TrEMBL record:
This is Uncharacterized protein. GO terms for cellular component: cytosol; nucleus. GO terms for molecular function: nuclear import signal receptor activity. Pfam families: Hikeshi-like_C (PF21057), Hikeshi-like_N (PF05603). It comes from Penicilliopsis zonata CBS 506.65. Belongs to the OPI10 family. Residues 5-132 form the Hikeshi-like N-terminal domain. One of its GO terms (biological process) is protein import into nucleus. Residues 157-214 form the Hikeshi-like C-terminal domain.
Amino acid sequence: MFSVIIPGRPCLTDIVAVDGQPGQPTKFAFTFPFSPSFSDVVVFFLPGTVLPQDTAAAIYIQIPESNPSPNGPEFRFLGALANDKPSAIFKARQAETNLSGGSAQVTGMVTLGISIEPIQTVAPQVAALEAQSSISQSSSTALVRQSPQERQQKAISTKVLAQRIIGNAFNFLASFASSDPSNKGQEVVPLKSFQDWWSKFERRVQMDPGFLEREESNI
């Protein structure tokens, strides 16, 4: 279903299914050496690949660490592919930097995970990633340099960012909820309402990248 290219290396085709029903896997993995160093990965659909309706392919990466934690390195979300976006270049983290400013010696294998997930699950992660990227770019080009303490005080955690995005979506979608008699009267939200929220959220991020840093943010 998928293939991966690391610039300067042979195309990766040895995909492994790691989860899902027999004949219908939903999670896949590629593994490749950390060295030689790389900064980007290209992930794309093979010809004929079509994802199930209302799903996306979430891309995660696990990179070995110079000082590994007891639980091992975590998977980091890179972005997603969809039927209308069958390929993309993703920015992968480079080697860690030690206190002296040089590159730490890191060896081992990188795992690139691909997970077929509902769009409702993937979209907030993509929005959070884009918001963080916009905030980082704004900080790096600022005319006034901030101290590490000031940057730390201003930065918001991924957890808080995700909570604000989810809260934002809930507030928007709540007005579109209706009772479903066929499902014990549980409230449901039309998929189109979620798509409308996502389009509106994307426009807001482009116009005001830092709005999620403000607690009173609303769409």
